Amino acid sequence: MSINNVALIGGTGTLGAPVLKALKASEFNIFVVNRQTSRSVYPRTQVITVPDDLNVDGIAQALKEKEIDALVITIAGSHVESQKKLIDAAFKAGVKRIIPAEFGSCDSADEKTNEILPLMKGKKDVRDYLLSLEGMQREDGSKFTWTSLVTGHFFDYGLTCGLLKFDVKDRKAYILDGGKIKFSGSNLDFIGKAVIKILEKPAETANKLLYVHSSYVTQLELLEALENATGDKFKRIDQDSEEELKVARPKMLSGDREAREEVVAVWGVVASDWKEKEGFANTLLGLQEDDLDETVQKVVAELR
């Protein structure tokens, strides 16, 4: 299987923008899928315009006309029905590889995670849908394949917005369960590299759930790096993850978005260790972990 023409949808988002940047720097021929009424602009990029309602036949025709080999989806993972429409269109158009909007902080293949964070069930639903199409024969005899990528917390981005339980601007560290739990996270440009590697290795990555990380640290290691980079002592606030979840989960289940972010933040630290997990793919994809101090220094400089 060879992949040449790659389309991305969601190219202006937190993840979509760096993934698009990586794709444009690659050897692939890149297109962006954009809805008719979208105000997003993509300079010097080929654009495929599709109906606002993601009409399956309309998208399929557009993808087929451009002979798209792979579709990368970086819209919000919670948009399950939209993803299913895109998948149906890709299947109908003869697209060879789908990378769905898995990514993210937590493992949707883990039953405990889906219990704690129902948001993840939508990602599992999409992956199950891909599995249901995996063995189906298409009219042209081509194979339909998928790769889901789990990245852990968006690491550099997470340092700017509290996702990793650090308030860098106010020099506060919210340390969970003693701060010695190893967790996996990935810088945004690293995720872009991982997507490229998947597309460059289509046979090795076909129909797989893969885990990657650019950082594998404890909160205490991260705290030390932050204090070194800023030259300041952070105020340490110790927290118990179970107690934090007891407070935040009921609010999340009643629709509180800030509480949902808190649950994601906590669970993404205490239950996101990919190192020994089946499907850990740094070696398969030829990816190296980033230097923690360099990452932290860059983020601190950007926040000044």
From TrEMBL:
Organism phylogeny: Eukaryota, Fungi, Dikarya, Ascomycota, Pezizomycotina
Keywords: NADP, Oxidoreductase
Bilayer-crossing regions: none
Tagged with keyword ATP-binding: no
Name of one Pfam family that matches: NmrA
A GO term for molecular function: oxidoreductase activity
Domain annotation NmrA-like: ranges: 5-237
Name of the protein described by the UniProt record: NAD(P)-binding protein
Domain of life: Eukaryota
UniProt cross-references to InterPro entries, sorted A to Z: NAD(P)-bd_dom_sf, NmrA-like, NmrA/Isoflavone_reductase-like, PCBER-like
CDD domains: PCBER_SDR_a
